[in-house]
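Reproducibility note. Readers wishing to regenerate the assembly model reported in the main text can use the exact inputs given here. Chain order matters: entities are listed in the order in which they were concatenated for prediction.
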Amino acid sequence: MNDLWAGLAEALRLVLRLDPDLVEITIRSLQVTLTATAIAALIGLPLGAWLSVNRFRFRRVVIALLNALMGLPPVVVGLIVYILLSRAGPFGVLGLLFTPTAMIIAQVIIITPIVASIAHQAIRDLWSEYHDLLISLHTTRAQRIKALLWDSRRALLTAALAGFGRAIGEVGAIMIVGGNIDHATRVLTTAIALETGKGNFALALGLGFVLIALAIAVNLALHMLTRTERSSQW
Amino acid sequence: MTLKSLLLSVVASLAALSAQADTMKMAVTTSFANSGLADVILPEIEIDTGIEVQLLIVGTGQALKLGEQGDVDAVLVHSRAAEEAFVEGGYGTHRREIMYNDFVIIGPSSDPAASGAADEAIGALAAIAGAEADFVSRGDDSGTHKMELRLWDAAGVDLAGDWYKAVGQGMGAALNTASGMNAYILSDRASWLNFGNKGDLAIVFEGDPVLFNQYAYLPVNPELHAHVRNDLAQKLENWLTSDRAAELINGYAIAGQQLFVFNAQPE
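Running the prediction on these inputs yields the following C-alpha cells for the assembly.
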C-alpha cells in the first residue's frame, strides 16, 4: 500500500517539475499512438462500412476473422514485425527497426481489427435503418458508405478511442520493435517496464499514473470537440 | 484528424531519419544497463567522440542475435563461449575484453540453507539444492543464466523439483520474483546494488573467483552487413579501451562499492 502512495507522490512530483525526460517520453507516446490510431481509423472505418453494405460469399468468415483478430497477442505482432523489419528480413533495407515508425506499424496492426470490428457493428445497425431510403435514392455504393460513415460518426469516434486505448497502454510489441532506446524509442509503457525491472516501483507507478491521466485527457478532449458539432443526431 | 495524422507521421519519419547522423546502436546486457554505468559513460562518449550510442537492453542471447542479423553495430555482453562462437561464425570482426564485475548469491537474510557457510560458490549452490530452498533462475539464455547453469553443472545438481523456478525474464524482473518469494537467486553485483525492492534479501555468498564476469566488446562484421557503422564501432572500441574509460569504469561505485574492474589490454 505504501508503494501506491509513493507512486502517487512521484507522479505529482514528475508532473509539477515538468521533468524533461517525462515530457519527452510522453510526447513520443502520444505521437506514436495518435499516428497509429489515425492510420488504423483511415483503414478500419471504411473497411467496417464496406463490410456492412456489401453482401458476398465469405462475408461471415471475414467478419468472424476480423473479430477474432481483436485478440491478437501484441508480443506476437511485435515478433512478426521485428522479423519483417530486421536487416535480415524482407524489409530490412528500409532500416526501420528500432524507430518510432516501426512502433507505429506494430500498433496499426494491433488496433485496426478493433476499429474495423466496432465500426462494422455500429454501421450495420444504421444500415438496416437507412437501407430502403438509400436504395430508393439510387445512391452509388461509395455514396452509401459516405452517408453511413458520417451519420454514425459518434460511434466511430468510440471505435477510434477503443483503438487508441489499446495502443497507448501496449508494451509487448513496441518493446520488441522499438527496443526502448533512451531518447529515441522510449515511451511511457516501456519506461514503466524498465523501472519495474529495476525495482523502482514508485517511479514506475508514477509514470503509470501519468499514462492513465494522459489517456483520460485525450478522451475528454475528443469528446469536447465532438460536442461542438451542430448537426449531431442526439 | 487526417491532416494531423499526416503531419505526425512526417514528424515521426523525420525523427527516424535524423537518427542516422553519428549515432550507432549497441546491444548490451540488462545487467550492464541496470548497473547505471551506462548513464555515466554514454554522455562522456558523446563529448569525447561525438558518437551518440543508442543502447538496446536485452539478454546476451538476444544481443548476439541482433548482431548476427545486423540490427546493431556492436555488442557488449558477457558469455565467453557464445561470444567466441559469434566471432567464429563470422558475425563479429573480433572480441575485445573490456572489464569485469562479479556475481553474488542473494538469499533470505536468515540464510535457511546455510549456503553462506560454504567455501566456494559450487558448495553454496549445493547447500541450496540440498535444502530444497526456493531458487529463482533467470531461465532466459542470458549470460547470467549461462553462468548459473555452468555452476549447477559443476555442483552436479539435478534441477528437477518445485524449488527451482525458471522465470524466463531479465535480471530486474527475476530479482522482483525472488524478493516476492524470499528465494535464493544468482545476480550480478551491480544489478543487486541498484535494485530498489530488496525486501528481506541480502548477499549470502560472494568472492569466489569463478563468479567473475568478463564483459567483451564485439563489433558486427561489416562484410556481412554493409550498412553497419564499423567506423563508429571502431572509434567506440578505442574509447572503451582508453585511459579515460579506465578512470570512469574503475571509479564507478554504488554505496561505496566499486562495481567494475577495467581490464582491457592495449593492442
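We highlight two features of this model. The mean pLDDT of chain A is 90. The radius of gyration of chain A is 20 Å.
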